[in-house]
Amino acid sequence: MEIQLWRELLEPYQLAVDELMVKFEYLIKAHRNAGKYSPIEEVNGRVKKISSILEKMQKKKIQFEDIEKKIEDIAGIRIICQFVEDIYTVVDIIKNRSDMTVKAEKDYINNTKPSGYRSYHLIVYYDVMTLTGTKRINVEIQIRTLAMNFWATIEHSLQYKYRQNMPPHIRERLSGAAAAVIALDKEMSSVRSEIMDSQNSFQIKAHVVAEILNTIQNLYNVANKREIVKIQDEFYKIYKLDDIDVLEKFSKELDIIAEGYRAQGMENYE
Ligand code: 0O2
To answer: Residue 49 CA to chain centroid, in angstroms?
Structure first.
């Protein structure tokens, strides 16, 4: 296959990865902006390297014309979660979306691979709009916890280093580390609600503070300077109390003041 043809072949896959990254990153932002816990901690995406595609073709005896049908992970998205429970929430979110359809799924969390590898894999159909029309492509979505990702990343690079000849003592240590990952994820799940509560209140506080500062910034253009300084001093005093209810009350009061100025401005305009 010529270089130009590889580029044409891979272009829609890059488009799919770019679009899906935006969509999953939006999900993280939307949860956090609403002061909610995001089941997705971070998202990464990649198009498989040509050298890796060639390697897979060789290993699985795939002809050039069958690449798109038989290699399902040319476009890959990796979703990292904090807790095992979040993985299943993300799977449900994906299954309920109208812009992708699940073609296949593999639960390597309840069915750990002999290597010790754990992750939830979905192959989804995803439509991209190309210059020549709509193209339906396969995208592999791997969903795993931070701990599972740590293990898989290290193991992947060791696999690459040793190819088929990983020394038994390294294999053994990786097995031990895989067991430690299971224990760590279990331990984290047992304190999940406490961790989520503290992260949630941090998110809510950050959100309210951002709103207050934004309102003060807007008031700066319409109110007199002395009043702004007074409001700012009041805000710093309240902030020190570290009480989210008081902050929320202050934010609402500021909204009323801002609304008053807005109405006054409209009156002057009319
Ligand atoms: P890369 O370099 O990550 O792209 P398939 O090979 O996909 O047609 P298979 O083997 O049944 O069919 O798929 P599977 O087992 O679902 O694996 C797909 C991907 O999962 C792999 O892609 C890896 O990314 C990851 N994976 C699977 N098993 C392991 C493992 O034991 N260790 C690690 N670190 N990752 C694993 P590629 O193409 O093999 O590799």
So the answer is: 22
